[in-house]
Amino acid sequence: NAGVTQTPKFRILKIGQSMTLQCAQDMNHNYMYWYRQDPGMGLKLIYYSVGAGITDKGEVPNGYNVSRSTTEDFPLRLELAAPSQTSVYFCASSYLPSQGQESTDTQYFGPGTRLTVL
Amino acid sequence: AQKITQTQPGMFVQEKEAVTLDCTYDTSDPSYGLFWYKQPSSGEMIFLIYQGSYDQQNATEGRYSLNFQKARKSANLVISASQLGDSAMYFCAMRTGGSQGNLIFGKGTKLSVKP
Prior knowledge:
- The complex is a heterodimer of chains A (118) and B (115).
- Chain A is built from no helices and eleven strands.
- Chain A is an all-beta fold and 118 residues long.
- In chain A, strands 2, 4, 5, 6, 9, 10 and 11 form a seven-stranded mixed beta sheet that branches. In chain A, strands 1-3-8-7 form a four-stranded antiparallel beta sheet, with no helix packed on it.
- Chain B is an all-beta fold and 115 residues long.
- Chain B has strands at 3-5, 10-14, 19-21, 24-26, 32-39, 46-52, 60-61, 64-69, 74-79, 88-96, 103-105, 109-114.
- In chain B, strand 5 (32-39) and strand 6 form a beta hairpin.
């Protein structure tokens, strides 16, 4: 069981370049998330998805786009890279039952992608 | 506003001793969950323990226990019998009932275990 996988592990971009960070999970989780972690800080939510075809903004969505065409995949796109997007990016997934039901809905994280924009 | 506060940027503990990492939270949602994650120097986020707002007993997972004091809005992590491998960043996080499962993270506490 691979869990949550992310590619690439490291990437250096020049200002203005674009790239897609890949994320896949094999746990049949309905929820998926993208976070960024800046040095010395906790994680901040960029975008999330509650299921295939449904995405929504998190706390820091500017400069990013996402899509969720399948349950398994949740890529994150940077269109015009800026130095402020230098960070470590984590993808996560969880299973949430129907609304109103209490659950542990533990989020399982991928290994992260370390992105530097120069 | 929903918020997680971890007031200890860094902590030291002697090997084999117990240590408590502090976490306070703020939410008006009656239904919420509290999580602790460990981030070693390799960078991955490892889930440690979960406490639901309606749970009557404190959560325990092996050497980890969560000291949940609902009235004080605190969810401190207790690590018993510290090991050198416990040296890492520790993050407290909260998920509220109306947040679509999104986690709000604190800034973390760096724990260093001394031999």
